Amino acid sequence: MNKQGLDDLCDRIAELIIKSKRIVVFTGAGISTESGIPDFRSPGGIWERFDPDDFTYQKFLGDAAARQKQWRLLRQLNLTAEPNPAHHAIAGLYRLGKLDCVITQNVDSLHQAAGVPDDRVFELHGNTQWAVCLGCHRRYPFGRVVAELDGDEEIPDCEACHGILKPDAVFFGEPLPQDVLNRAVSRSCDCDLFIVIGSTLTVYPAAYMPVYALDSGARLVIVNLSDTPMDKQAEVLVRAKAGEAMTVVLQKVEEKIG
Ligand code: APR
């Protein structure tokens, strides 16, 4: 996309943001690739290197070797990554009073690290900041558990009850946190502008959120490097890197607000 084309599209997004009152930003793994965390379905993404069938809740519960594999993948995902310009631009919208909330599929908590308050980030797929005991529900800092996972060490179990420790991320086949899902659905239905950034919109129920927003009369914006099933319903569609596009969008919103 040429610079002028991107500038015009970002100007249209900024206009929509200025006119809107309840703005929801919905993010997927694509917003964190510029922080060095691979996404799942781009060429070279995680599902080209790992088999998603190994990452089901059932396998985690029933197979110690599968648990090792899942802990190791999440340890890679939970790199000491830093928020990138896209995360900072979204936090900038919040500071301008132009963000109701972020609904994210990501487990890296980079939106909070960039400055969006925790109560304005709905992590549909949990996060990798904590591990939880499936027996007594005691929580442990994720870093402390993976620190013990050097070499081929067995994954530590719960100090209190010796139950299985599981990362607080949602695995395939595992129900999403109901309260978080309910609040995300409600905010998607109430918003007047829904901005999708860095997602293929192919995993449900997360991918229903933009549908709820459209059905409730909201306008849709998509910033994504590849096609999504909802591209045709987007009022503005930007095929550009999230960091570049959202930085320009924030600059234009700041200019327009004066
Ligand atoms: N800027 C914009 N878009 C990007 C960028 C970038 N820098 N990098 C990647 N993308 C786009 C890719 O083109 C792709 O369309 O982001 C999208 C990422 O899609 P997925 O890898 O499918 O990630 P996501 O949509 O978040 O996956 C949803 O699937 O495996 C499960 O639980 C996992 O939460 C994840 C869910």
**Unreliable segments of 5+ consecutive residues:** none
Summarize model confidence as the mean pLDDT: 93
Percent helix range:
25-40%
Assembly status: single chain
* Rg on CA atoms, Å: 19 Å
CATH homology superfamily name of the largest domain: TPP-binding domain
Strand % is 15-25%
How far apart, in Å, are the first and last alpha carbons?
28 Å
Bound small molecules, by name, code or SMILES, are:
adenosine-5-diphosphoribose
Assigned CATH class of the largest domain: Alpha Beta
Which CATH-level-2 architecture of the largest domain? 3-Layer(aba) Sandwich
- Estimated structural class: alpha/beta
Order of helices and strands: HEHHHHEHEEEHEHEHEEH
Q: Total helix count?
A: 10
Q: CATH fold name of the largest domain, please? A: Rossmann fold
Domain unit count: 2
Describe the structure.
- The chain has 258 residues and is an alpha/beta fold.
- It folds into 2 domains: 164 residues, Rossmann fold; 82 residues, SIR2/SIRT2 'Small Domain', CATH 3.30.1600.
- 38% of the residues lie in helices and 16% in strands.
- The protein is built from 10 helices and 9 strands.
- A 6-stranded parallel sheet has the order 3-2-1-7-8-9, with helices on both faces. It has a 3-stranded antiparallel sheet with strand order 5-4-6.
- Strand 7, helix 9 and strand 8 form a beta-alpha-beta unit.
- Helix 1 crosses helix 10.
- The longest helix has 17 residues.
- The radius of gyration is 19 Å and the shape is elongated.
- The two termini are 28 Å apart.
- 38% of the residues are buried.
- Bound molecules: adenosine-5-diphosphoribose (APR).
- The site of adenosine-5-diphosphoribose has 22 residues, from loops.
